[in-house]
Amino acid sequence: MQKIQTDYLIVGAGLIGSAVAMGLTKLGVDRVMVVDLDLTGEWSSSELNAGGVRATWSQKVNLLTSKLSIEYFAQHASEVGYRDCGYLWLHKPETMNAALKAREMHVANGWPVDVLDVAALRSRFPFIDKTSDLAGAIFGVRDGLVNPNRLKEHYREQALKKGAQFHHNVWVCSSEDESSGSKKIKAFQFSSQLSPEHKKKLLCENPTTFTEGTETGEWIEIEAKHVVNAAGAWAPHLAQVLGYASPSVPVRRQISLFQTRDVDLTNYGMIIDPSGVYFHPESIYALSGFAIADEPAGFNFEYVADRFFEEHIWSHLHERSSAFESLKHVSGWAGLYENSPDHHAIVGRVNSGARSSNLFEAHSFSGHGAMQSYAVGIALAELMVKGRYETLDLSELSGDRFANGRTIASETWVI
Ligand SMILES: Cc1cc2nc3c(=O)[nH]c(=O)nc-3n(C[C@H](O)[C@H](O)[C@H](O)COP(=O)(O)OP(=O)(O)OC[C@H]3O[C@@H](n4cnc5c(N)ncnc54)[C@H](O)[C@@H]3O)c2cc1C
């Protein structure tokens, strides 16, 4: 069996694992290794998301984490495909006051948000012409969109330039604690490219049950001084591999692409209807999503196509605009949200009270990992290398909040 040693091992090379690798290398750490079953991320949430980035949140920790990230995206706008095209939140009378109160927090923390009454809304967004149930809207001026794939590649390039290594085809299955505090990780490294279906099958099973079958490859052992669980929707499984429990669950989210004949959405940003349907322009189409309330937890990648589009997207959109009365469903897909019980990310040292623990985690973003990835990468790297948060204090996001009853108010602006 091949034996490898490293100082920092990150399991999961999505947006979060790649951002943490960049954060570590920015601090001058040179033995950083990132492993993933699939570096292309075919089934990862980082490849299947909607690309929205916003600091308009109900909770300050999310506002600050997104703000720091979006400021970075703006500095690297052409590389990461950031556009400050805004987030428009439409509100009915029953939610408008809470939105205005949250907007006070946004503005007080340096995030510009406009308030629109119905007349201003109709003049700025003329295609939104069915407004009798609305009280108005708020508009996050610097919220917008990124290209998640380019963002991930950007993080990886920055980390690679400074010596981080990314390893493909590595499926992490078990671990042992060493008396030195290091972890010995056992992983199977496939020697040939896996088919999409084979990767999906592995990802839908618990890695602790993996046994070598007909695949070609070899077992490897990685001894790491620090390990990061950045396995996204698979973080609870990886937690089991690493010897602890995580309370999060994977939940399917579907996205539809559609064509509009009667309105050109190109110059607009993200729009969130009170029904929960969100949409934004995506090349020549519009991209739209909706969270089905009773969607069961599990690894489900099935897109139910016309049924989803008609029942959950079009049914709401045609009530918002006469330009949406005839829409053409083009295609779509399903990916996984990684939901924590309070819809906040889980970030920090595993068992944060035990300062000697060299196990860290960053996952369970509950649908907002792309927009928070930069800040989390920087902050977690500081915690690992310097022993404390400096740029942004994320201590309230540590995972043991669920076990020790140190609850934080749930994030409610989740779409
Ligand atoms: C439909 C949809 C829409 C979304 N829209 C947005 C949005 O608009 N804005 C936003 O900010 N966020 C959005 N999100 C959420 C966002 O995509 C995620 O929060 C983010 O991508 C999480 O990144 P990650 O790196 O933690 O996880 P992932 O990208 O899923 O990466 C985890 C990686 O871990 C690897 N892995 C897992 N287990 C193992 C193992 N045992 N061994 C080796 N490798 C392993 C997997 O192969 C995977 O590549 C959306 C998500 C979905 C599904």
Explain what you see.
By secondary structure, this protein is an alpha/beta fold. It has two domains: 2-48 and 149-247 and 341-404, FAD/NAD(P)-binding domain, CATH 3.50.50; 83-144 and 250-338, D-Amino Acid Oxidase, subunit A, domain 2 (D-Amino Acid Oxidase, Chain A, domain 2), CATH 3.30.9. Helices cover 29% and strands 27% of the residues. It is built from eleven helices and 18 strands. It has helices at residues 15-26, 60-75, 77-80, 93-108, 118-124, 148-161, 196-203, 235-242, 305-317, 369-386, 401-404, and strands at residues 2-11, 32-35, 52-53, 87-91, 113-116, 136-140, 144-145, 165-167, 170-177, 183-190, 217-229, 249-260, 270-272, 278-282, 285-290, 327-339, 346-349, 359-363. The strands form three sheets. Strands 1, 2, 8, 9, 10, 11, 17 and 18 form an eight-stranded mixed β-sheet that branches. An eight-stranded mixed β-sheet has the order 5-6-4-13-14-15-12-16, with helices on both faces. A two-stranded antiparallel ribbon has the order 3-7. β1, α1 and β2 form a beta-alpha-beta unit. The longest helix is centred in the last third of the chain and has 18 residues, at 369-386. The protein is globular.
